[in-house]
Amino acid sequence: MADESLNNISLKALVNKGSNRVIFIESGHEFIDVLISFLTLPMGTIIKLARNHSAPLGIGCMKNLYASVKDIDVQHFRTNCWDMLLSPRNGAGPIVENLEMNIDDCDNTRFFRCSNGPCWTPTRLSYYNTVPCRCGNLMNIAVDVYAKAGHEVFVKGPVRLIISDDLQVLPPETSVSSSLLKKAGAMDSNTIEELSLDIGADEVFNLLMCSFVSKTPLTDIFLKRRPRSMFNKNIGTQQISINSRMIEEARNMYSEANEIFVKLIVSKSKNVVCYAEAGEDFVNLLFSFLMLPLGFILKAARDVCLKGCIDRLYKSVRNLDGRLWKSDTRKELVVRPKPSPGFCYQNHPLGIEEASNVLGDQAEIVDPLSQYYEDENEDSSLGFLKGPAMFMVTDSLVVSSISPILGLSVLNDMNVPITDVEVQTVHVGVEEAFGLLVASFGCESAALTSVFLRR
Asked: Which regions of 59-191 does DSSP assign to beta strands (E)?
């Protein structure tokens, strides 16, 4: 988490004294930028932060994918690339390091180079100190590329905006504040109180976690001081609806030359997927969800019904007046966030675009999926795992090496007799890939079933 010695951020809150609820918060760019930056965080980072700070947040099946990366034998990985999934770099790069308060514990201004002098020209840098240089040495000498400026990040400095209790970022207009007051039932000035809040990194972290499980995170964190045990919920979803435009864009980019097929072990009587038998190509797809920014998933999950309100933050930020942004480019970093360069393999079913190299012509960022010391011409477009390999994937997206004994154990736990099982072979294309992404974010235990059996 960010350095606790950083100065806290001061906010003004309007509170309904009768219900002890935050009506809205008024803030300058410092806190607005921090709030907006949530959308640039990769899912792997969010899960890691929750795990590291004893906040067992149940973000659908994402937590199971994260745990699976940690548990799978490292010999299955093509390179030491698990860092990309467990501690992904923010695609917004050094820009987010200028935040007044950054809860991401990854320093996006720091890179690593080889200790071998001849390898410095041309300059090659790595995100991680576990990546080998083409000379065979590890790239483990730390280099700070950018200085932190500590200035405006996403919205313009003079602007002050309103943040509703459900994290909608709104213009400071009388009509907006009046609407929020009316909604809170606080039209009588005697029921309204103005509070000054002084928040630090811990409150910001709790606010992010609470936004997944609560419709009133400002009240829960700043007034009711609810314990972190409230995060031990699954965000759930009532429906899976996917952004059709993103599907079409991905279809234009994706070549199905190497099609993905999966065998589903299905309970005929219950009409549920017990588990799947899949190759490394399918697991590469699932693991790649961890390096995707939160905003990418919320953009894909059209009208998804969540227990929390993080989707309302995204929608309000997307609709924020363009004149309030520092630049159109900064807005794009949030409403169309991309993973860092080198984090996605080629021909991905989601049609993912990577962020541009923030170092420009200053240096080449070594592909974390490459292994220079094995083969300079190695194809880094194949994904994270070696092949051919077979894996078992449960309905809640727990991934493990394939095992008939484990498969029988899953059937036994589900009380499904072997006579009730049938095998269905399904194709995983662009639409199914987006379905799995949204389901992994919003479904607690039936991701495969929701995509392949209940469409």
From this structure: 110-113, 124-125, 141-144, 161-164, 169-170
Alpha helices by DSSP H, 187-243 = 201-210, 217-222
CA distance 123 to 135: 14
Q: Into how many domains does the chain fold?
A: 1
Q: Cα–Cα distance between 194 and 238 in angstroms, integer?
A: 37
Please give the structure tokens belonging to residue 217. Answer: 């995170």
pLDDT tens-place string over residues 270-318: 999 999 999 999 999 999 999 999 999 999 987 555 678 999 999 999 9
DSSP assignment string, 242-263: B-HHHHHHHHHH--TTS-EEEE
Q: For residue 209, give the 3-state DSSP assignment.
A: helix
pTM exceeds 0.70: yes
Q: Measured at the alpha carbon of residue 359, what is the angle toward residues 38 and 159, in degrees to the nearest 5?
A: 40
Question: What is the pairing mode between strands 272-279 and 110-113?
Answer: unpaired
Instruction: Flag whether 312 is in a domain.
Output: yes
Q: Rounded to whole angstroms, how far apart are CA atoms 116 and 136?
A: 10
Angle at 106 between CA 104 and CA 112, to 5 degrees: 165
What's CA 114's distance to the chain center, in Å?
Answer: 30
Phi/psi for 396 (5° steps) reads: -95, 15
Q: Which helix (H) or strand (E) holds 312?
A: helix 310-318
Q: What is the pLDDT of residues 21-35, one digit of tens each?
A: 999 999 999 999 999
Sheet holding 169-170, edge to edge: 169-170, 161-164, 21-27, 9-16, 192-199
Range of the domain at 422: 9-452
Q: Is 191:18 a contact under the CB 8 Å cutoff? A: yes
| C-alpha to C-alpha distance for 81 and 33, rounded to whole angstroms | 30
Alpha carbon of 118 to those of 110, 114, 322, 396: distances in Å? Answer: 21, 9, 47, 48
CA-to-CA distance for 455 and 451, rounded, in angstroms?
Answer: 6
The amino acid that residue 360 corresponds to is: G
* Beta strand 110-113 pairing with 141-144: antiparallel
Residue closest to 454 by CA, chosen among 238, 168, 282? 238
